[in-house]
């Protein structure tokens, strides 16, 4: 049986809408982490209530998008909204609709779990036998979110706080790694915003050790994904975001595969969610032209960064029709 974890939650008020709202808020933080199953008494009713709450969350993000002129935020919010609007919810059994992403089933159909299901919500009591059968099909580090407060200790599960402690452990290792290259993540900010010069200096250093850094950042990111939702203070969240941003920039400047891997762990207020080719170029060069950016970094002694910018520009040119 895979090593899984559990979280016991309480809904704020009674009623299907209330518990659906809580589940959707929770799921919003884990939507990029595999598939999801919601085990409840009346799947069709719960699906309807949940979809309403999901679209309500999407409209909230639309309002945030409408309230900003920041191009990066607009791109990030647009991507999130599009994904949320296209996520497939179903009240069919897993084998009847294997391509769906969020399943609503009753206890009778809980014997079959979707592949790569990292989050299971329970509003009913499965019992020890049914619970064990479910767990046998879940991947390692999956999370059971139980509103009925079953005895998961008896099945060998550990509480979610263990996953949260793992985040702290991975963060300590990431800090030690950066410290070994004279990078203090706490100094990457000037008040509430990024310290551009400090970020560029760190990026120049990390480009020389990109493989090691991306492996370290990836291990931290994975721990953070599995532990979500995670409450941390604003200062620590800034530091987490700075690491993810650096990893995103290193990846963008060293690989042809421009992915969202290090973007999905960001705080909702982060501005560096870039997804398309044009956005990538704006991210890399900013408002400067290539020559100006290369000259500025060369003058500052950031040769790794200057070379990387030239290489990306060259690659982009060869790909342009």
Output the keywords.
two-stranded antiparallel sheet; 321 residues; alpha/beta
**Spatial order of the strands forming the largest sheet:** 3-4-2-5-6-1-7
Taken as a percent bin, the fraction of beta residues is 5-15%
- Number of DSSP helices? 11
Largest sheet: 7 strands, parallel
Report the mean per-residue pLDDT as an integer: 84
What's the total number of strands?
9
| Poorly predicted tracts of residues | 268-285
Q: Briefly note the structural class of the backbone.
A: alpha/beta
What overall geometry do the principal axes of the alpha carbons give?
Answer: elongated
Q: Could you estimate the helical fraction of the residues in percent?
A: 40-55%
Structure description:
With 321 residues, this protein is of the alpha/beta class. The chain is built from 11 helices and 9 strands. The protein has helices at residues 16-28, 43-66, 71-86, 127-135, 161-179, 196-207, 210-227, 234-254, 277-285, 290-299, 303-319, and strands at residues 5-8, 35-39, 89-90, 102-105, 117-122, 143-146, 158-159, 189-190, 193-194. The strands form 2 sheets. A 7-stranded parallel β-sheet has the order 3-4-2-5-6-1-7. It has a two-stranded antiparallel ribbon with strand order 8-9. Strand 8 and strand 9 form a beta hairpin. The relative contact order is 0.12. The model is unreliable at 268-285 (pLDDT under 50).
């Amino acid at each position: 049986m895979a090593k899984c974890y559990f979280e016991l939650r309480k809904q704020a008020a009674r009623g299907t809408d209330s518990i659906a709202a809580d589940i959707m808020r929770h799921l919003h933080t884990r939507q990029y982490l595999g598939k999801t199953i919601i085990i409840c008494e009346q799947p069709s009713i719960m699906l309807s209530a949940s979809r309403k709450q999901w679209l309500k969350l999407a409209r909230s993000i639309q309002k945030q998008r409408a309230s900003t002129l920041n191009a990066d935020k607009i791109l990030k919010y647009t991507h999130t909204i599009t994904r949320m609007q296209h996520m497939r919810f179903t009240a069919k059994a897993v084998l009847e609709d294997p391509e769906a992403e969020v399943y609503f089933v009753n206890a009778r159909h809980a014997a079959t779990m979707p592949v790569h299901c990292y989050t299971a919500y329970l509003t009913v009591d499965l019992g020890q036998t049914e619970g064990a059968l479910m767990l046998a099909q879940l991947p390692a580090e999956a999370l059971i979110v139980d509103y009925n407060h079953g005895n998961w200790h008896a099945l060998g599960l550990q509480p979610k706080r263990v996953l949260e402690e793992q985040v702290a452990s991975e963060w300590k290792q990431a800090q030690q790694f950066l410290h070994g290259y004279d990078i203090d993540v706490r100094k990457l900010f000037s008040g509430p915003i990024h310290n551009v010069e400090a970020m560029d200096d760190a990026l120049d250093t990390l480009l020389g050790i990109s493989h090691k850094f991306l492996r370290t950042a990836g291990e931290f990111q994975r721990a953070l994904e599995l532990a979500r939702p995670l409450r941390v203070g604003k200062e620590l969240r800034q530091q987490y975001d700075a690491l993810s941003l650096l990893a995103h920039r290193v990846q963008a400047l060293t690989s042809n595969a421009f992915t969202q891997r290090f973007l999905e762990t960001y705080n909702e207020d982060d501005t560096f969610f870039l997804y398309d080719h044009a956005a990538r170029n704006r991210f890399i060069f900013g408002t400067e032209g290539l020559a100006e950016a290369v000259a500025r970094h060369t003058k500052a002694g950031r040769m790794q960064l200057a070379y990387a910018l030239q290489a990306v520009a060259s690659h982009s040119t060869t790909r342009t029709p």
